[in-house]
Amino acid sequence: MHSLLAHCSQSRPCICKSLLASVPTGTDQLTIPADDDYYLYLAQKIFPIADAKSVQGTPVTDGNIPMVCSSLSSSGKYFAACTNKTLTLWDVSSCTRVASYDLARAASSVAFSSSEDMIVIADKSGDAYLFRVGDVPSKLEPSPPELLLGHVSMLLKILISHDDKYVLTCDRDEKIRVSRFPNAYNIETYCLGHEDSVTCLNFPKSSPCMLISGSSDGTLRLWNFTTGELLHTQDCSLNENTLIVDLVSFQVNSTSFVVCVIMNKYSYLRVFSIDVSDSLKCNFQEDVSIPCSSPRALLANLDELFVLSYDSPHFIIALKFVNNTFTLCAELNEKLKDVARQFNDDFLSITAQQPDDKLLSHLNKRKIDDTQDYYKRKNERLLANSK
Protein backbone atom coordinates (compact mmCIF):
# COMPACT_ATOMS: atom_id res chain seq x y z
CA MET A 1 0.00 0.00 0.00
CA HIS A 2 1.31 3.41 -0.89
CA SER A 3 1.64 5.67 2.12
CA LEU A 4 2.40 9.33 2.55
CA LEU A 5 4.03 10.61 5.69
CA ALA A 6 2.52 13.86 6.88
CA HIS A 7 3.18 16.32 9.64
CA CYS A 8 0.63 18.71 11.07
CA SER A 9 2.03 22.23 10.80
CA GLN A 10 -0.21 24.58 12.80
CA SER A 11 -3.75 23.93 11.54
CA ARG A 12 -2.93 22.62 8.10
CA PRO A 13 -1.63 19.09 7.57
CA CYS A 14 1.28 19.09 5.17
CA ILE A 15 2.00 15.97 3.15
CA CYS A 16 5.74 15.45 3.11
CA LYS A 17 6.74 12.77 0.64
CA SER A 18 5.63 9.48 -0.82
CA LEU A 19 7.00 6.30 0.72
CA LEU A 20 7.58 3.12 -1.26
CA ALA A 21 5.55 2.16 -4.24
CA SER A 22 1.83 1.62 -4.75
CA VAL A 23 -1.76 2.74 -4.27
CA PRO A 24 -4.99 0.71 -4.03
CA THR A 25 -7.71 1.38 -6.58
CA GLY A 26 -11.30 2.71 -6.32
CA THR A 27 -12.79 6.11 -5.22
CA ASP A 28 -11.69 9.76 -5.08
CA GLN A 29 -11.04 10.10 -1.33
CA LEU A 30 -7.95 10.21 0.84
CA THR A 31 -8.55 8.84 4.33
CA ILE A 32 -6.66 10.41 7.22
CA PRO A 33 -6.34 8.43 10.48
CA ALA A 34 -4.96 10.91 13.03
CA ASP A 35 -2.21 10.04 15.49
CA ASP A 36 -1.51 13.05 17.74
CA ASP A 37 0.06 15.67 15.43
CA TYR A 38 1.20 13.10 12.90
CA TYR A 39 -0.85 11.59 10.13
CA LEU A 40 -0.50 8.74 7.72
CA TYR A 41 -2.20 9.75 4.49
CA LEU A 42 -3.41 6.71 2.61
CA ALA A 43 -4.34 7.03 -1.04
CA GLN A 44 -7.42 4.80 -0.75
CA LYS A 45 -8.93 3.47 -3.99
CA ILE A 46 -7.92 6.37 -6.17
CA PHE A 47 -8.33 4.87 -9.61
CA PRO A 48 -11.88 3.67 -10.45
CA ILE A 49 -11.12 0.19 -11.76
CA ALA A 50 -12.14 -3.17 -10.42
CA ASP A 51 -10.56 -6.22 -12.03
CA ALA A 52 -8.29 -4.69 -14.66
CA LYS A 53 -4.82 -6.15 -15.14
CA SER A 54 -3.34 -2.82 -16.22
CA VAL A 55 -4.16 0.90 -16.43
CA GLN A 56 -2.57 2.91 -19.27
CA GLY A 57 0.05 0.18 -19.57
CA THR A 58 0.74 0.15 -15.81
CA PRO A 59 0.38 -3.33 -14.27
CA VAL A 60 -2.04 -3.74 -11.37
CA THR A 61 -0.82 -6.16 -8.67
CA ASP A 62 -3.13 -7.25 -5.83
CA GLY A 63 -5.37 -4.25 -6.50
CA ASN A 64 -2.44 -1.81 -6.35
CA ILE A 65 -1.10 0.56 -8.98
CA PRO A 66 2.60 1.49 -8.60
CA MET A 67 3.17 5.16 -7.71
CA VAL A 68 6.58 6.34 -8.88
CA CYS A 69 6.91 10.01 -7.83
CA SER A 70 5.01 12.75 -6.01
CA SER A 71 5.20 16.39 -4.98
CA LEU A 72 3.46 18.84 -2.64
CA SER A 73 2.87 22.46 -3.65
CA SER A 74 4.72 25.12 -1.66
CA SER A 75 1.69 26.18 0.42
CA GLY A 76 0.44 22.62 0.92
CA LYS A 77 -2.72 23.28 -1.10
CA TYR A 78 -2.16 20.61 -3.77
CA PHE A 79 -0.59 17.17 -3.82
CA ALA A 80 0.41 15.50 -7.10
CA ALA A 81 1.38 11.87 -7.59
CA CYS A 82 2.25 9.83 -10.65
CA THR A 83 1.81 6.23 -11.54
CA ASN A 84 3.84 5.19 -14.56
CA LYS A 85 1.45 6.86 -17.01
CA THR A 86 -1.07 8.82 -14.93
CA LEU A 87 -0.77 12.09 -13.01
CA THR A 88 -3.36 12.63 -10.27
CA LEU A 89 -3.89 15.96 -8.49
CA TRP A 90 -5.53 16.25 -5.04
CA ASP A 91 -6.79 19.16 -2.99
CA VAL A 92 -5.18 18.59 0.43
CA SER A 93 -7.67 20.57 2.55
CA SER A 94 -10.67 18.57 1.32
CA CYS A 95 -8.70 15.37 0.61
CA THR A 96 -10.41 14.98 -2.76
CA ARG A 97 -9.11 14.28 -6.22
CA VAL A 98 -9.19 17.39 -8.42
CA ALA A 99 -8.02 16.03 -11.76
CA SER A 100 -6.26 13.18 -13.55
CA TYR A 101 -4.06 13.36 -16.62
CA ASP A 102 -2.80 10.66 -18.96
CA LEU A 103 0.96 10.69 -19.55
CA ALA A 104 2.66 9.76 -22.81
CA ARG A 105 5.55 7.93 -21.09
CA ALA A 106 6.46 6.57 -17.67
CA ALA A 107 7.11 9.45 -15.24
CA SER A 108 10.33 9.83 -13.26
CA SER A 109 9.89 13.18 -11.43
CA VAL A 110 7.19 15.79 -10.76
CA ALA A 111 7.32 19.35 -9.39
CA PHE A 112 5.05 22.37 -8.80
CA SER A 113 5.77 25.97 -9.71
CA SER A 114 5.94 28.38 -6.74
CA SER A 115 2.73 29.99 -7.99
CA GLU A 116 1.08 26.52 -7.79
CA ASP A 117 -0.72 26.98 -11.11
CA MET A 118 1.64 24.73 -13.10
CA ILE A 119 3.05 21.21 -12.74
CA VAL A 120 6.04 19.87 -14.63
CA ILE A 121 6.60 16.17 -15.28
CA ALA A 122 9.84 14.50 -16.38
CA ASP A 123 9.63 11.10 -18.03
CA LYS A 124 11.97 8.20 -18.68
CA SER A 125 12.16 8.87 -22.42
CA GLY A 126 13.84 12.23 -21.75
CA ASP A 127 10.86 14.56 -22.30
CA ALA A 128 9.29 17.02 -19.88
CA TYR A 129 5.68 18.21 -19.99
CA LEU A 130 3.85 21.22 -18.56
CA PHE A 131 0.37 20.93 -17.02
CA ARG A 132 -1.55 24.14 -16.32
CA VAL A 133 -3.68 23.53 -13.25
CA GLY A 134 -4.61 27.03 -12.09
CA ASP A 135 -8.17 26.77 -13.43
CA VAL A 136 -8.66 23.00 -13.01
CA PRO A 137 -11.32 23.22 -10.22
CA SER A 138 -13.51 25.37 -12.49
CA LYS A 139 -13.25 23.02 -15.48
CA LEU A 140 -14.84 19.71 -16.20
CA GLU A 141 -11.86 18.62 -18.30
CA PRO A 142 -8.25 19.67 -17.52
CA SER A 143 -6.14 21.33 -20.22
CA PRO A 144 -3.97 18.95 -22.27
CA PRO A 145 -0.25 18.83 -21.41
CA GLU A 146 2.31 20.87 -23.35
CA LEU A 147 5.70 19.50 -24.38
CA LEU A 148 8.18 21.59 -22.39
CA LEU A 149 11.62 20.28 -23.40
CA GLY A 150 13.50 17.15 -24.33
CA HIS A 151 16.77 15.37 -23.52
CA VAL A 152 18.35 12.47 -25.39
CA SER A 153 18.70 10.52 -22.12
CA MET A 154 16.38 9.46 -19.30
CA LEU A 155 15.43 12.36 -17.01
CA LEU A 156 15.93 11.68 -13.30
CA LYS A 157 14.86 14.95 -11.66
CA ILE A 158 13.02 18.16 -12.54
CA LEU A 159 12.75 21.36 -10.46
CA ILE A 160 11.44 24.91 -10.93
CA SER A 161 13.40 27.77 -9.37
CA HIS A 162 11.86 29.70 -6.47
CA ASP A 163 11.13 32.70 -8.70
CA ASP A 164 9.53 30.52 -11.42
CA LYS A 165 12.01 31.86 -14.01
CA TYR A 166 13.93 28.63 -14.66
CA VAL A 167 13.24 24.93 -15.00
CA LEU A 168 16.14 22.60 -14.20
CA THR A 169 16.43 19.03 -15.45
CA CYS A 170 19.12 16.40 -14.93
CA ASP A 171 19.65 13.15 -16.76
CA ARG A 172 21.52 9.89 -16.90
CA ASP A 173 24.19 11.43 -19.16
CA GLU A 174 25.79 13.65 -16.47
CA LYS A 175 24.07 16.85 -17.62
CA ILE A 176 22.12 19.50 -15.73
CA ARG A 177 20.18 21.75 -18.11
CA VAL A 178 18.90 25.19 -17.07
CA SER A 179 16.08 26.48 -19.28
CA ARG A 180 13.83 29.54 -19.16
CA PHE A 181 10.37 28.81 -17.78
CA PRO A 182 7.84 28.30 -19.23
CA ASN A 183 9.56 28.99 -22.60
CA ALA A 184 12.02 26.15 -22.15
CA TYR A 185 13.20 26.25 -25.77
CA ASN A 186 15.42 29.10 -24.47
CA ILE A 187 18.32 27.28 -22.81
CA GLU A 188 20.02 29.52 -20.27
CA THR A 189 23.04 27.30 -19.59
CA TYR A 190 24.29 23.82 -18.69
CA CYS A 191 25.94 22.75 -15.45
CA LEU A 192 28.60 20.28 -16.62
CA GLY A 193 31.15 18.38 -14.56
CA HIS A 194 29.57 15.22 -13.15
CA GLU A 195 31.03 11.96 -14.48
CA ASP A 196 27.94 9.80 -14.07
CA SER A 197 24.15 10.04 -13.69
CA VAL A 198 22.89 13.13 -11.82
CA THR A 199 20.45 11.64 -9.32
CA CYS A 200 19.23 14.59 -7.21
CA LEU A 201 18.94 18.40 -7.14
CA ASN A 202 18.20 20.89 -4.37
CA PHE A 203 17.91 24.67 -3.96
CA PRO A 204 19.25 26.06 -0.62
CA LYS A 205 16.88 28.73 0.68
CA SER A 206 19.67 31.06 1.82
CA SER A 207 21.28 31.26 -1.65
CA PRO A 208 18.68 31.84 -4.41
CA CYS A 209 21.16 31.39 -7.30
CA MET A 210 22.84 28.28 -5.91
CA LEU A 211 22.08 24.69 -6.86
CA ILE A 212 23.25 21.51 -5.11
CA SER A 213 23.52 18.29 -7.11
CA GLY A 214 24.33 14.69 -6.26
CA SER A 215 25.46 11.98 -8.62
CA SER A 216 26.29 8.34 -9.16
CA ASP A 217 29.93 9.44 -9.37
CA GLY A 218 29.84 9.92 -5.59
CA THR A 219 30.30 13.71 -5.65
CA LEU A 220 28.28 16.57 -4.24
CA ARG A 221 28.58 19.71 -6.37
CA LEU A 222 27.54 23.33 -5.83
CA TRP A 223 26.73 25.57 -8.79
CA ASN A 224 25.66 29.05 -9.72
CA PHE A 225 22.89 27.68 -11.93
CA THR A 226 22.21 31.02 -13.66
CA THR A 227 25.71 30.99 -15.19
CA GLY A 228 26.57 27.27 -15.08
CA GLU A 229 29.65 27.98 -12.94
CA LEU A 230 30.87 25.09 -10.77
CA LEU A 231 31.53 26.56 -7.31
CA HIS A 232 32.68 23.51 -5.38
CA THR A 233 33.08 19.73 -5.66
CA GLN A 234 32.88 17.55 -2.55
CA ASP A 235 33.88 13.90 -2.89
CA CYS A 236 31.50 11.76 -0.80
CA SER A 237 32.50 8.42 -2.26
CA LEU A 238 33.28 5.49 0.02
CA ASN A 239 34.19 3.07 -2.78
CA GLU A 240 33.87 2.79 -6.55
CA ASN A 241 30.21 1.72 -6.26
CA THR A 242 29.11 4.70 -4.15
CA LEU A 243 25.90 6.35 -5.38
CA ILE A 244 24.26 9.43 -3.87
CA VAL A 245 20.58 8.55 -3.56
CA ASP A 246 19.13 11.83 -2.27
CA LEU A 247 20.05 15.10 -0.57
CA VAL A 248 18.35 17.99 1.23
CA SER A 249 19.54 21.27 2.74
CA PHE A 250 18.80 22.97 6.08
CA GLN A 251 19.29 26.70 6.54
CA VAL A 252 21.41 27.61 9.59
CA ASN A 253 21.44 31.39 9.08
CA SER A 254 21.43 33.90 6.21
CA THR A 255 24.91 32.90 5.02
CA SER A 256 25.23 29.22 5.89
CA PHE A 257 23.40 25.93 5.55
CA VAL A 258 24.01 22.22 5.93
CA VAL A 259 23.56 19.54 3.27
CA CYS A 260 22.41 16.05 4.26
CA VAL A 261 23.26 13.17 1.94
CA ILE A 262 22.21 9.52 1.89
CA MET A 263 24.15 6.95 -0.09
CA ASN A 264 23.33 3.53 -1.46
CA LYS A 265 23.95 0.72 1.07
CA TYR A 266 25.39 3.13 3.67
CA SER A 267 23.68 3.26 7.07
CA TYR A 268 24.79 6.80 7.87
CA LEU A 269 23.52 10.27 7.10
CA ARG A 270 26.46 12.34 5.80
CA VAL A 271 26.28 16.03 6.81
CA PHE A 272 28.30 18.85 5.22
CA SER A 273 28.36 22.50 6.36
CA ILE A 274 28.37 25.23 3.70
CA ASP A 275 29.36 28.85 4.42
CA VAL A 276 28.89 31.52 1.75
CA SER A 277 29.54 34.61 3.89
CA ASP A 278 32.87 35.46 2.26
CA SER A 279 34.29 32.82 -0.03
CA LEU A 280 32.42 29.54 -0.32
CA LYS A 281 33.56 26.96 2.21
CA CYS A 282 32.36 23.35 2.36
CA ASN A 283 33.41 21.07 5.21
CA PHE A 284 32.44 17.59 6.30
CA GLN A 285 30.54 17.95 9.58
CA GLU A 286 29.44 14.50 10.77
CA ASP A 287 28.18 11.03 9.98
CA VAL A 288 24.91 10.32 11.79
CA SER A 289 24.08 6.65 12.29
CA ILE A 290 20.59 5.68 11.10
CA PRO A 291 18.98 2.27 11.76
CA CYS A 292 18.67 1.19 8.13
CA SER A 293 20.98 -0.17 5.45
CA SER A 294 18.91 0.92 2.43
CA PRO A 295 17.98 4.63 2.71
CA ARG A 296 15.90 5.70 -0.27
CA ALA A 297 14.71 9.30 0.20
CA LEU A 298 15.09 12.37 2.42
CA LEU A 299 12.55 14.97 3.45
CA ALA A 300 13.22 18.22 5.29
CA ASN A 301 10.36 19.81 7.23
CA LEU A 302 11.29 22.86 9.35
CA ASP A 303 13.78 21.44 11.90
CA GLU A 304 12.89 17.80 11.23
CA LEU A 305 14.43 15.34 8.81
CA PHE A 306 12.73 12.14 7.67
CA VAL A 307 14.62 9.24 6.13
CA LEU A 308 12.55 6.80 4.09
CA SER A 309 13.99 3.32 3.74
CA TYR A 310 13.30 -0.24 2.60
CA ASP A 311 14.25 -1.79 5.94
CA SER A 312 11.55 -3.29 8.19
CA PRO A 313 10.45 -2.01 10.69
CA HIS A 314 12.36 1.27 10.12
CA PHE A 315 10.52 2.38 7.00
CA ILE A 316 10.42 5.96 8.31
CA ILE A 317 13.14 7.42 10.53
CA ALA A 318 12.85 10.89 12.11
CA LEU A 319 15.74 13.13 13.15
CA LYS A 320 15.78 16.58 14.77
CA PHE A 321 18.10 19.42 13.76
CA VAL A 322 19.11 21.09 17.02
CA ASN A 323 22.23 23.16 17.79
CA ASN A 324 23.58 22.53 14.29
CA THR A 325 23.51 18.73 14.67
CA PHE A 326 21.10 15.87 13.97
CA THR A 327 19.77 13.47 16.59
CA LEU A 328 17.25 10.65 16.37
CA CYS A 329 13.77 11.45 17.74
CA ALA A 330 13.13 8.44 19.99
CA GLU A 331 9.49 9.19 20.86
CA LEU A 332 8.47 10.07 17.31
CA ASN A 333 10.29 7.06 15.87
CA GLU A 334 8.31 4.75 18.15
CA LYS A 335 5.08 6.28 16.86
CA LEU A 336 6.26 5.89 13.27
CA LYS A 337 7.19 2.25 13.90
CA ASP A 338 3.70 1.62 15.29
CA VAL A 339 2.17 3.15 12.18
CA ALA A 340 4.48 1.18 9.87
CA ARG A 341 3.61 -2.11 11.60
CA GLN A 342 0.00 -1.70 10.47
CA PHE A 343 1.18 -1.92 6.86
CA ASN A 344 4.25 -4.09 7.32
CA ASP A 345 3.02 -6.87 5.01
CA ASP A 346 2.26 -4.35 2.26
CA PHE A 347 5.67 -2.74 2.59
CA LEU A 348 7.44 -6.09 2.52
CA SER A 349 5.45 -7.13 -0.54
CA ILE A 350 6.53 -3.96 -2.34
CA THR A 351 10.20 -4.28 -1.41
CA ALA A 352 10.20 -7.95 -2.43
CA GLN A 353 9.22 -6.87 -5.96
CA GLN A 354 12.13 -4.39 -6.06
CA PRO A 355 15.34 -6.12 -4.87
CA ASP A 356 17.74 -3.68 -3.26
CA ASP A 357 20.72 -4.73 -5.38
CA LYS A 358 18.82 -3.99 -8.63
CA LEU A 359 16.84 -0.91 -7.60
CA LEU A 360 19.47 1.69 -8.50
CA SER A 361 21.95 -0.32 -10.56
CA HIS A 362 20.41 0.88 -13.85
CA LEU A 363 21.60 4.42 -13.08
CA ASN A 364 25.27 3.50 -13.27
CA LYS A 365 26.82 3.41 -16.69
CA ARG A 366 28.50 0.19 -17.67
CA LYS A 367 32.25 0.58 -17.85
CA ILE A 368 33.67 -1.63 -20.57
CA ASP A 369 37.41 -2.00 -21.09
CA ASP A 370 37.93 -3.38 -24.59
CA THR A 371 41.63 -2.47 -24.86
CA GLN A 372 42.80 -6.00 -24.04
CA ASP A 373 40.68 -7.44 -26.82
CA TYR A 374 41.97 -4.75 -29.17
CA TYR A 375 45.64 -5.52 -28.39
CA LYS A 376 45.00 -9.25 -28.76
CA ARG A 377 43.53 -8.79 -32.24
CA LYS A 378 46.32 -6.38 -33.18
CA ASN A 379 49.01 -8.91 -32.17
CA GLU A 380 47.23 -11.61 -34.14
CA ARG A 381 47.28 -9.37 -37.24
CA LEU A 382 50.97 -8.55 -36.78
CA LEU A 383 51.84 -12.23 -36.40
CA ALA A 384 49.80 -13.11 -39.49
CA ASN A 385 51.54 -10.39 -41.56
CA SER A 386 55.00 -11.47 -40.43
CA LYS A 387 54.56 -14.99 -41.77
TrEMBL record:
<comment type="subunit">
    <text>Forms a heterodimer with the catalytic subunit Mettl1. Interacts with mei-P26 and weakly interacts with bgcn; required for the function or formation of the mei-P26-bgcn-bam-sxl complex. Interacts with nanos; may be involved in mei-P26-dependent derepression of the BMP signaling pathway. Interacts with Myc; the interaction may be mediated by mei-P26 and may be involved in the regulation of ribosome biogenesis.</text>
</comment>
<protein>
    <submittedName>
        <fullName>Uncharacterized protein</fullName>
    </submittedName>
</protein>
<keyword id="KW-0677">Repeat</keyword>
<dbReference type="GO" id="GO:0106004">
    <property type="term" value="P:tRNA (guanine-N7)-methylation"/>
</dbReference>
<dbReference type="GO" id="GO:0005634">
    <property type="term" value="C:nucleus"/>
</dbReference>
<dbReference type="GO" id="GO:0005829">
    <property type="term" value="C:cytosol"/>
</dbReference>
<comment type="similarity">
    <text>Belongs to the WD repeat TRM82 family.</text>
</comment>
<dbReference type="Pfam" id="PF00400">
    <property type="entry name" value="WD40"/>
</dbReference>
<dbReference type="InterPro" id="IPR001680">
    <property type="entry name" value="WD40_rpt"/>
</dbReference>
<dbReference type="InterPro" id="IPR015943">
    <property type="entry name" value="WD40/YVTN_repeat-like_dom_sf"/>
</dbReference>
<dbReference type="InterPro" id="IPR036322">
    <property type="entry name" value="WD40_repeat_dom_sf"/>
</dbReference>
<comment type="pathway">
    <text>tRNA modification; N(7)-methylguanine-tRNA biosynthesis.</text>
</comment>
<comment type="function">
    <text>Required for the formation of N(7)-methylguanine at position 46 (m7G46) in tRNA. In the complex, it is required to stabilize and induce conformational changes of the catalytic subunit.</text>
</comment>
<keyword id="KW-0539">Nucleus</keyword>
<dbReference type="InterPro" id="IPR028884">
    <property type="entry name" value="Trm82"/>
</dbReference>
<keyword id="KW-0819">tRNA processing</keyword>
<comment type="function">
    <text>Required for the Mettl1-dependent formation of N(7)-methylguanine at position 46 (m7G46) in tRNA. In the Mettl1-wuho methyltransferase complex, it is required to stabilize and induce conformational changes of the catalytic subunit. Required for binding of nanos mRNA and repression of translation by the mei-P26-bgcn-bam-sxl complex. May cooperate with mei-P26 and nanos to derepress the BMP signaling pathway. May cooperate with mei-P26 to suppress expression of a subset of microRNAs. May cooperate with mei-P26 to regulate bam expression levels in germline cells during gametogenesis.</text>
</comment>
<dbReference type="InterPro" id="IPR019775">
    <property type="entry name" value="WD40_repeat_CS"/>
</dbReference>
<dbReference type="GO" id="GO:0043527">
    <property type="term" value="C:tRNA methyltransferase complex"/>
</dbReference>
<keyword id="KW-0853">WD repeat</keyword>
